[in-house]
Amino acid sequence: MTDRHREERAASFERGAAVYAATRPSYPDDAVAWCVPARARDALDLAAGTGKLTASLVARGLDVVAVEPSDAMRGELVAVLPGVDARTGTAEATGLPDASVDVVTVGQAWHWFDEAAAAAECARVLRPGGVLAVLWNLRDEAVDWMAAFSVLLHRGDALDPARPAPVVGDAFGPVEGATFRWSQPFRPTDLRGLAASRSHLLTLPEAERDAILDEVDELAAIHPALRGRDVVDFPYVTHCWRATRR
Ligand SMILES: C[S@@+](CC[C@H](N)C(=O)[O-])C[C@H]1O[C@@H](n2cnc3c(N)ncnc32)[C@H](O)[C@@H]1O
Questions:
Q1: pLDDT tens, position by position, 121-159
Q2: Separation of 107 CA from ligand 1 center, angstroms?
Q3: How far, in Å, from the CA of 230 to the mean position of ligand 1?
């Protein structure tokens, strides 16, 4: 994938903000607890999107700044979390002062960043002893309908779906990882919207996107685990990485 294509993909969320807010998952409490140090007061939620992870930080009593470059995504966040300090900015240039937060969280977004520049920026804004935490909610493909759904989502996708540990540089101690399995109730009829919120589909030509979305509808209509059900368990595995600022 070229840098230009990656940038187009990263910017595509501007077109899918409402459906993102309606269909994407939040984060399990035990994963957020693992990421956020108990003593933390000030948090930066970086690439905060529509506020899915921001809401968990607010619920933990943290004083949160949410930085997000897309006006549409940030607009959804402000609508659900009007008390949060939401700012435009990027991972490479947050606009926050030096040593001003105890934790930086990045949900579902580290792969869009210039990794070295983002790691340096996170090191700059974290206080010594603060934590950089990177989280990804991945579909649990051990479940067979989810594996079939994933095949459709990644058809023709040049972006590697693997989400390895972030490379954060010498300003941080060792990167530690943990995974958390969980599920959330989901209407099979919303599978189409969830698929449509993904950057790969947002950037496909309309005819190709519609063909994949029609197959997603077909999966929801015929798979025995989905057919005729109002609500099913949507299984996720949340992968978390954390590193402490030296
Ligand atoms: C998949 S969404 C994740 C949103 C939210 N963190 C969540 O967990 O739902 C990815 C977000 O990264 C943002 N983004 C893309 N490139 C970025 C960059 N270089 N710096 C900061 N945010 C970026 C997009 O605008 C989008 O809102």
A1: 999 999 999 999 999 999 999 999 999 999 999 999 888
A2: 8
A3: 31
The residue type of 174 is P
Among 215, 179, 141, 182, residue whose Cα is nearest residue 26: 182
Is 94 a pocket residue for ligand 1 (Cβ < 6 Å)? no
Q: pLDDT at residue 57 above 90?
A: yes
Provide the edge-to-edge strand list for the sheet that holds 176-186: 85-87, 63-67, 42-46, 101-107, 126-139, 232-244, 176-186
Q: Which residue has the tokens 């700044």?
A: 65
Secondary structure of residue 221 in the 3-state scheme: helix
Query: Is the C-beta atom of 16 inside 6 A of ligand 1?
Result: no
Determine what percent of the chain falls in helix, strand and coil, rounding each to the nearest 5: 40, 25, 35
CB 69 within 8 A of CB 90: yes
Distance, in Å, from the CA atom of 47 to the CA atom of 134, rounded to the nearest integer, reads: 11
CA 225 to chain centre: 26
Cβ burial, residue 74 (10 Å; 0-12/13-18/19+):
buried
Q: 152 CB less than 6 Å from ligand 1?
A: no
pLDDT at 1: 66
Instruction: For residues 234 and 190, give the distance between their C-alpha atoms in angstroms, rounded to a whole number.
Output: 11
List the domains of the chain with CATH numbers.
Answer: 3-244 (3.40.50.150)
> What is d(CA 77, CA 18) in angstroms, rounded to the nearest whole number?
10
